[in-house]
Amino acid sequence: MDRLGVQKADLVTHDIGNMVGYALAAQYPDRITKWAIIDAPLPGIGPWDEILKSPLLWHFNFRGPDVDRLVKGRERIYLDRFWNELSANPKAIDEATREHYAQIYARPGAMHSAFNQFATFNTKDRADNQVFAQKKLTMPILALGAEKSFGDQQAAIMREVATNVEGGIITNSGHWIMEEQPDQTVKLIRAFLDKK
After folding, report:
1. Cα-only R_g, the chain
2. Residue 161 in 3-state DSSP?
3. Which of 149, 153, 156, 192 could pair with 175 in a Cys bridge, judged by C-beta atoms 3.0 to 4.6 Å apart?
């Protein structure tokens, strides 16, 4: 933000962006005016240990010496599993999008980096978030959960770390809300950001 000359900003995050957004908002709360957080938990916050047990989220703990070899050349199969199982409508994630990400993740080191990202959830991210949570956020927060994914749980998680949380549900959607329900999502976020 400093490099761009931005002193304050509204924040909109989804998925892993939620974790990055929380670190930003917790460390620089005076710089985030409003935050719309969408459909992913915060490591170590709320029912995190129960969330980790969900069979749909097995990838949070997919580690070991052979993970790179197991997925190499099969990135598309690995990624299709996310789009197909975590969406309410897998056809909403079109072929061009699927192929685009499969090519990116097939690059040398890309999957390894993705696996390492998940590995930090229960180490550094959990510990950092528990420290951050000692001081609750006060900026207005819109916590959107997808009906077929985190739903109301998204707002419940955010109420653990913030005092001014409004919840919302993106209906007829799984985790990939911008692919599955873009109009509904943009409408809710725009109304929240435009509110004085």
Report:
1. 17
2. coil
3. 149
pLDDT single digits (tens) 173-192: 999 999 999 999 999 999 99
Domain range annotation of the chain:
9-194
Distance CA 45, CA 162 (A): 11
Count, residues in the chain:
196
Burial 14-28 (b: 16+ CB within 10 A, else e): beeebbebbebbbee
Token code pair at residue 122: 């229960």
| 99 token code pair | 């192929």
Q: Which numeric CATH code is attached to 9-194?
A: 3.40.50.1820
pLDDT (tens digit per residue) in 118-160: 888 888 999 999 999 999 999 999 999 999 999 999 999 999 9
Q: Strand ranges (DSSP E) for the chain? A: 9-14, 32-38, 141-146, 165-170
Between CA 146 and CA 60 the distance in angstroms is 19
Count CB neighbours of 147 within 10 A. 18
